[in-house]
Specification:
Layout lengths: L9 H29 E4 L2 E5 L4 H14 L6 H10 L5 E4 L2 E8 L2 E8 L6
Antiparallel strand pairs: 1-2, 2-5, 3-4, 4-5
Length: 118
């Protein structure tokens, strides 16, 4: 169906795709750089400085949860991030996430979710 659409400029679509790939590469680079400088792991706890940019922050949160064995969906991470505007704790994929305001600034603390009581 799209191949038959005469209003689509294939060259413009290809250029847009390349721009998106370049932006994704830049985000991946920033996530790696920020992680190396601002994430500390001790046993099963990860302490991570809060990144000011939402998409980078979501990718960093996803990485921390993966590091602790969780497999979050993107929408779960986005919802958790949204909820931090009015709460300080949440959990995703078996990982507890807490936003703490420390002397050095805001940090996320990630740890395995405690067992649920039955």
């Amino acid at each position: 169906a799209l191949a038959d659409a005469d209003w689509i400029d294939p060259l413009a679509v290809a250029q847009s795709a390349q721009h998106l790939a370049d932006a994704n590469e830049a985000l991946d680079y920033e996530v790696e750089r920020f992680w190396k400088q601002n994430a500390q792991r001790s046993d099963n706890v990860i302490r991570l400085r809060l990144h000011p940019m939402r998409e980078t922050r979501l990718r960093l949160m996803t990485r921390a949860i993966h590091e602790l064995g969780g497999s979050p969906r993107g929408s779960d991470i986005a919802n958790l991030d949204d909820n931090f505007s009015n709460q300080r704790k949440g959990n995703v994929a078996g990982v507890m996430v807490e936003l703490r305001f420390e002397d050095e600034g805001p940090f996320f603390h990630f740890s395995p979710e405690p067992p649920r009581r039955s």
